[in-house]
Design goal:
Elements (H helix, E strand, L loop, with lengths): L5 E7 L6 H9 L6 E7 L6 H6 L6 E4 L6 H11 L4 E5 L3 E3 L3 H9 L5 E10 L12 E3 L2 E3 L5 E3 L14 E3 L6 E5 H7 L15 H11 L3 E12 L13 H18 L2 H6 L1 H14 L15 H13 L7
Parallel strand pairs: 1-2, 1-4, 2-3, 6-12
Antiparallel strand pairs: 4-11, 5-12, 6-7, 6-11, 8-9, 10-12
Helix pairs in contact: 6-7, 7-9
Length: 314
């Protein structure tokens, strides 16, 4: 529907290098039926000074501590009013037709719960690379249950030109249907806050697939993304980031793996679970609980809600 209301949700943490141009690109969208909700996770680099300039055009909430990306996005989603929620990283720039193209693709069928577009790589200075490189055209999983961005770091030579169904969308710029958010949330939380940062979008994509929702990629929605974390540079990253990345990889599998898939990957999965338990041992940097919501329970909840809906004649 052309009048679908879209909530753009952005989480900032020391994002002063990027956030101004990101917000300007959202405000310049040709799609007017939208709102922007920004959650700042206690930035200390001048991000707040920049956000104050946009308070007349955005809903901005300032946290007193860094809650992490997942929890802060849940906070933004709770404050949002949209039929669709577009999660957006502050280091993303959108071309003017991005939101309209996502909404158009999302309305192809009701089973589509998430939509992604074509993100191209851009330098941290927001300068284009010498050759156009793909950042992401959706998420896919390998047979060993590693998830990657489709086309990542490939030269953009005119491929990925068709609408097509993919496993999931990167939360750097993902459009989620509100109905799907409500359907697959666990205790009212869409993203698992135990993930804190990284891989929470793959967890959502996997959970959505289990619940029967589909994700579509459209090449008509184009933007640019500064990608800091790539499979080849993880050793150079701070230890806390690598800790969350490793922890979340196996936490995601523990939550979502089905019996048949477990049997096919038992050896690798068991080794990962042992590694996860070591990371969460007493005295470790974090603890977690496995948050699971089964499709069967969701179906029961939907039936119960339907049975208690008031009659139109009352």
């Amino acid at each position: 529907m052309p009048n679908d209301f879209v909530s753009v949700t952005i989480v900032t943490w020391n994002s002063g290098q990027f956030i101004k141009r990101c917000l300007e690109s959202v405000l310049a969208q040709k799609y007017d039926h939208k709102e922007i909700v920004v959650i700042d996770n206690n930035s200390t680099d001048g991000t707040i000074d920049i956000l104050e300039q946009f308070e007349d055009r955005c809903v901005i909430i300032y946290n007193s501590e860094n809650l992490g990306f997942a929890a802060a996005q849940n906070q933004a989603i709770s404050a949002a009013r949209g039929d669709w929620v577009l999660t957006l990283n502050p280091d993303v720039l959108l071309l003017p037709g991005f939101i309209q193209s996502l909404v158009d693709a999302g309305n192809i069928e009701r089973a589509i719960g998430s939509v992604c577009g074509k993100l191209l790589a851009i330098k941290s200075s927001f300068d284009l690379p010498d050759r156009p490189l793909v950042d992401s055209t959706g998420i896919y999983f390998t047979p060993m249950l590693r998830h990657l961005d489709r086309g990542s770091q490939q030269v953009d030579s005119g491929h990925y030109l068709q609408n097509e169904y993919v496993f999931g969308a990167t939360a750097a710029a993902a459009l989620y249907r509100r109905e799907m958010i409500d359907d697959i949330s666990i205790d009212g939380e869409f993203f698992d806050p135990d993930f804190f940062v990284y891989r929470e979008d793959a967890d959502v994509a996997w959970r959505a697939q289990l619940f029967g929702w589909r994700c579509i990629y459209t090449p008509n929605a184009r933007g640019y993304h500064v990608r800091k974390v790539l499979p080849g540079n993880r050793r150079a990253l701070p230890s806390v980031i690598n800790m969350h990345s490793v922890k979340n990889r196996f936490l995601m599998r523990l939550k979502n793996i089905t019996p048949d898939l477990y049997r096919r990957n038992a050896l690798h999965h068991n080794a990962g679970c042992r590694r996860l338990l070591l990371l969460s041992r007493p005295g470790a940097e974090f603890t977690f609980s496995v948050r699971v919501r089964s499709p069967e329970l969701a179906q029961s909840d939907r039936k119960a809600a339907h049975n208690h809906e008031p009659s139109q004649n009352q």
